[in-house]
Design brief:
Number of domains: 2
Structural class: alpha+beta
Low-confidence stretches: none
Strand order of the largest sheet: 1-5-6-10-9-8-7
CATH topology of the largest domain: BirA Bifunctional Protein, domain 2
CATH class of the largest domain: Alpha Beta
Bound molecules: 3,4-dihydroxyphenylalanine
CATH architecture of the largest domain: 2-Layer Sandwich
Mean pLDDT: 92
Number of helices: 11
CATH superfamily of the largest domain: Bira Bifunctional Protein, Domain 2
Distance between the termini: 81 Å
Shape: rod-shaped
Strand content: 15-25%
Largest sheet: 7 strands, mixed
Order of helices and strands: HHHHHEEHEEHEEHEEEHEHH
Radius of gyration: 39 Å
Length: 343
């Protein structure tokens, strides 16, 4: 009996000073003291050896020990954040799992890829150029010499002034780089980001995206240009969409034109989007100016070509009926998530 009482005291002391591994403290305590192979149980087993007249008192002592162990266990559980260790029996396998949200391509990338794949089917390949350009490739070679008034329409951000290095204002600069390589014929499209010093609004931003197209070979005519762009519009927007060309001016093309498509919102009836004209402008184009060919070392007496340039934001806004282009760069998941299935 004396011996047993001593053991009870020792065990109590041990419990008080118990320090298990921090994250599993409560569980380690349970296994060591309360579990079926724990010390409390084994002391209880000693009851059979206790003399009959002491049984009552010893039973009381052991019972107190058990209660002490249990309250200490509850205490340790609380310290561990009230989270009992998860055992198999506490996991409900019928609960739905944590869902992973699926990312999606940005609508500008979706439309860019679509434009690229349409022109690839016509034999165009992709060419790219730097976003920081020199004056020659962005302006001068494109028949926009210094002090040309048309430069005003494409004010940009200058990285340095003398010599002038700038964020390119259009992807037409990639035309120049490709023509300078001198491998003819050329049949390229050039997607990329461009920059302008513009006030940001629903229709304009200081950066946006363009796709430039260029075809230079023997006997390229305006009819080739029209047919190529007509094919593009039908593939992009559907067979019912009508196309019209209006004469325009660009320094790097002669003749130049702007191309409109019949309004996708009202079908040509007239609405706010088309400003009640039934038409919306989607790109500029024309026959490459002989000065541009010569500037790039191409014999303008032998070769001719067409070029066009379109804004990807504009095409995307028309395709998905988006009214404000600022939303493209706001990273609003409520907007971006709508394109999960539009690969
Ligand atoms: N570079 C022009 C712009 O940014 C777009 C453009 C118009 C490109 C006519 C062309 C073209 O290649 O022929 O406004």
């Amino acid at each position: 009996m004396e011996n047993l009482l001593q053991q009870v005291e020792n065990l109590k002391e041990e419990m008080k000073n118990f320090l298990g591994e921090e994250k599993d403290q409560a569980e380690a305590f349970r296994i060591k003291f309360i579990g079926s192979n724990g010390s409390v149980k084994s002391l209880m087993g000693e009851m059979k050896n206790v003399a009959a007249e002491n049984k009552r008192e010893m039973g009381k002592v052991l019972n107190e020990l058990k209660l002490f162990a249990e309250s200490k266990y509850e205490e340790l559980k609380k310290i561990a954040g009230g989270k009992p260790k998860i055992t198999e029996s506490t996991i409900d396998f019928t609960l739905p799992g944590d869902s992973l949200s699926i990312g999606s391509r940005h609508p500008i990338s979706i439309v860019k890829n679509k434009i690229v794949s349409i022109f690839q089917r016509l034999g165009f390949s992709v060419a790219e150029g730097p976003e920081i350009e020199d004056d020659w490739h962005n302006f001068t070679a494109l028949n926009l010499p210094e002090n040309h008034p048309a430069r005003d329409m494409q004010d940009t951000f200058y990285v340095s002034q003398d010599p002038a290095w700038m964020l390119r204002t259009h992807t037409s600069s990639v035309q120049v780089r490709e023509m300078e390589k001198g491998d003819l014929p050329i049949r390229i499209i050039c997607p990329g980001r461009v920059y302008r010093n513009e006030t940001i609004s629903a229709r304009a931003h200081c950066f946006f995206h363009q796709v430039e197209g260029l075809y230079i070979a023997d006997n390229v005519s305006f009819a080739d240009l029209k047919q190529t762009l007509y094919f593009f519009v039908q593939e992009m927007f559907g067979k019912d969409v009508k196309v019209r060309f209006r004469p325009s001016y660009f320094p790097f093309t002669e003749p130049s034109a702007e191309m409109d498509i019949s309004c996708l919102i009202c079908g040509g009836e007239g609405c706010n989007v088309c400003k009640h004209t039934g038409w919306v402008e989607i790109l500029g184009c024309g026959m490459v100016h002989p000065n541009v060919l010569e500037n790039c070392g191409i014999d303008s007496g032998r070769y001719s070509g067409f070029a066009f340039g379109m804004g990807i934001e504009r095409i995307t806004m028309l395709k998905y009926q988006i009214k404000d282009l600022r939303i493209f760069s706001e990273n609003d998941l409520r907007f971006l998530k709508q394109f999960v299935s539009a690969v």
